[in-house]
Amino acid sequence: MNDAEVYLFTGPELGEKKEAIENIKAAAQKKNGSLDEYTYYAGDERIQDIVSQLQNVSLFDQALFITVRNAEQIKNKADIDSLLSWINGGAKDSPNTLILTSDENSIERKIESAVSSNHKKIFWEMFENRKTQWLQGFFRKNGFAISDDAIDQILEMVENNTEALKAECGRFFYCFEKGHTITSQDVDKILSHNREENAFTLFDAMADVTKSPVQRLESSLGILQKIRMSSGDGITANLVAGLSYCFRMLRTWHVMHEKGANPNDSQLKAAGFSKKNQEKYQAASRIWTSGATASVLALLSSSDMAVRENGNGLEETRLVLMLHSIILKNGIFPTEYQSHI
Predict the structure, then answer these.
(1) How many helices (H) and strands (E) does the chain have?
(2) How many CA atoms lie within 13 A of 67 on its CB side?
(3) From CA 125, how far away is CA 72, in angstroms rounded?
(4) Quick one: which of 122, 128, 142, 161 has the fewest CB in 10 Å?
(5) Which of 191, 183, 113 is closest to 150 using CA atoms?
């Protein structure tokens, strides 16, 4: 008997994860002719409602292709039992496809165990040598060459997953003729001088140890305002995803330095810390302890959920309070309004 069309994709490498989902979707379309696609966020929708949708199969309906993101948040016993009942029962004979995704490395163990080993994968962040090879191949496939210095510079500036790298590096193809070799001067011109504010420049401001906490908050709020001006409402999901990536990297930094450990340069690079990032995360680790980092990650998740539940009307207020809590309160969200920001 074939495995149920249920997949679990975890880990921080967003680009390869997205490509794997697209491949499964293409196969499902070929098999079923057409699909009704839905994307949900665990914590935003009732898992039991999603399961009910998967169970309602009709000869006249198109097959469903449902992606549930933030699957690590599926913790309610009733939700878990409902999901397991469908995975272990009706899913095997269903034309529908369910994909569970998480940027974390694991989710509830009972759910993981129910998914076939052939249908689950952890998409780890690429090692340093793989990032270099990926960039070289990406530019070559698009008709360009790139110098080693330019690669190092890009990896220090751009979030190190293939989705972010594709988005940023694609800008070069509009600025130069095919056959051109991308240099570090080109990177300065295209990425450095024209770079917009985003979650990663925001994290840099939040972790600037040369400034006092209040100064860091002021700088961060200024960047937040620029992001809102360029992107409008509905920025929380992308902003939280980027900041969560940074604080997960900080958590990794703390783990690697536990009990006085002193990892060498090659070990740090293998974990995704370039020379520039080593300085940044060493500084950030002096601001947020391991415990504070865990609190910040929990706050980021709850802030995302709060905005989804309440809509964009209070988005700016929630984001301002979130930054205030991270920078001045080590991730502890205020229980009542505090005016002395």
Answers:
(1) 15, 7
(2) 16
(3) 18
(4) 142
(5) 183
Structural tokens at position 230: 């360029």
Sorted by sequence, the CB contacts under 8 Å of residue 250 that are 6+ apart come out as 281, 284, 285, 288, 293
262-270, long-range: CB < 8 A, 24+ apart: 269/128, 270/127, 270/128
- 272's torsion region: left (phi>0), alpha (psi -120 to 50) or beta? left
Note the residue count of the chain.
341
Among positive and negative, which fits the CA dihedral 250, 255, 257, 258?
A: positive
DSSP strand pairing (6-10 vs 97-102): parallel
pLDDT tens by residue, 136-191: 999 999 999 999 889 988 887 777 678 878 888 888 998 899 999 999 999 888 87
Answer for the pair 63, 95: CB distance below 8 angstroms, yes or no.
yes
155 Ramachandran zone, left/alpha/beta (phi>0; psi -120 to 50): alpha
d(CA 244, CA 160): 14
Contact 42, 73 (CB under 8 A): yes
Structure tokens at 30: 């070929």
